[in-house]
Amino acid sequence: MFADLKNDFVFRRIFATHPDLLRSLLNDLLERSGPTAGADLWAWLFVHAPHLTEVPSDLEPGPYRAALELANKATFTQDELDAYRKVIDEILQVRELVDAKLAEGKALGLAEGEALGLAKGEALGLAKGEALGFAKGEALGILKGKIAALLSILAARGMRLSPEVRSRIEACTDDATVDDWLSRAGSSPSLEDLLTPLPRST
Question: How far apart are CA 195 and CA 168, in angstroms?
């Protein structure tokens, strides 16, 4: 089983002792084709690593595979396992938030169906609510994974975040904005530069 990459202890275990791996990851995030291809892969690992039983066979050799292999709990000492479990509550809080949003989406869909006044409409509304809730919950989980990745990269670079800046980042719900921050997190010279929106081409 693999540890949760959103866990601060796990991130430090991987990258504080393997700085070359962090540089390789940052370079890959910047060089992959497409605006967020590398960010999407890293976010996928952040969300799904705790549920994997082995390294995916189609995950090509490189920084992502190396990071995942270092997150294998079988390689942890007992002290490292204790430290990992100590901070796992933060990850559970994110999952609870996703579950709450999923329930909210289901309730919204059911209410829309009941308003139709027909049994068929009620059934349709329930199905729509379940689908909407799942989509919202999954999207929120991916977004939270990207934000966790962004905060970890900034911490690894030694950038200190004020409570206001951290709150601003964690409260962001615009996927495009988070993708922009994440794609520039490894190269921006300062937090002010990173959080300043780039001018849009007309």
Answer: 10
104 contact partners, CB below 8 Å, separation of at least 6: 133, 136
- Whether the CB-CB separation of 183 and 35 falls below 8 Å is answered with yes
Model confidence over 66-78: pLDDT tens digits? 888 888 887 888 8
Q: Give the residue carrying structure tokens 């039983």.
A: 53
What is the C-alpha R_g of the chain? 19
CA distances from 150 to 25, 46, 53, 74, 131 (A): 13, 11, 25, 27, 29
Q: Are 8 and 55 in contact (CB under 8 A)?
A: no
What is the Cα–Cα distance from 192 to 185, expressed in whole angstroms? 11
Query: From the DSSP assignment, how many helices (H) and strands (E) are in the chain?
Result: 10, 0
- For residues 121 and 153, which has the higher predicted lDDT (pLDDT)? 153
Listed residue (44, 50, 56, 45) closest to 85, CA to CA:
50
**Closest Cα to residue 195, out of 170, 186, 184?**
184
51 exposed, middle or buried (CB, 10 Å; 0-12, 13-18, 19+)?
exposed
Tokens of 25: 């990851």
